[in-house]
User: What shape does this take?
Amino acid sequence: MEHFLADDGERIHLRISGQGRPLVLLHGWTSTHRDWTPFMPALEAGCRVFRWDARGHGGHAPRSAAVPTVARMARDLHNLIRHYGLQDVAIAGHSMGALTLWQYLRDWGEEGLSHLAFIDQSPRLLTDTGWRFGIYGDFDAHRNAIFMDELGKDLAEAVLRLAAFGNNARARDKYLENGAGIQLARQRLGALDPQPLIDCWASLTAADYRDVLQTITLPSFLVYGDESNFYSVDTARHVAGQIAGSRLQLYAGQDHAPHLGERERFIRELSAFLGLCGAAAGRP
Assistant: This one.
């Protein structure tokens, strides 16, 4: 993989491919740039695509002691854009990637950006008596503290259970069946260094971007699964209602990764949103 140096000396690893307008893709917590691989044949036809392994992710040995907070990742994104001299940049973020993008907008604004895409995320993960649009609609600071303790004991199992025992019954059934897919996910997660990911989660759950949504003026595309493990359809509609002129697409029967569940539809709709006529046919 290629890499660039962030302003604290950390290496940020990424893959760059394709020709055309710049498109930066931001993956979710505990994931890697590989999440976007299925979309590359289509997106590379019209975009120069940047896919990173976010700081603390991808199994890369750290060079610094910096904690991979969402603010630090947003700064890394700013460093990426400046390092490669990008202008008129489109950015799509899934889950943690959406939080990173909201943090970027808070810290650096919209200058140099053109289009924004947010996939299945709430601007505030934790719930309280005045906010029910977070995880499960019922995941307060106490529940998060319990989850953080579980992460410290067995990160892989805690992450799998977080996805399994939420709002998607099929995810729960798959976890309880303990089939090959769950076993492979457990193996992958078990190979990760847990502490950077735990520190990252602490940052993500401390964040609150509700105030950022109404400041967004760029064209924005929102994709949510209507059977998301974590977020209700009401969450999706709330976020869309806070971002003026945004386009919301609900993917029926899809979970927290609706873009992976309906790859051809996502490619078709994202390409149309970005004006990529050559890719809009929806190759997987």
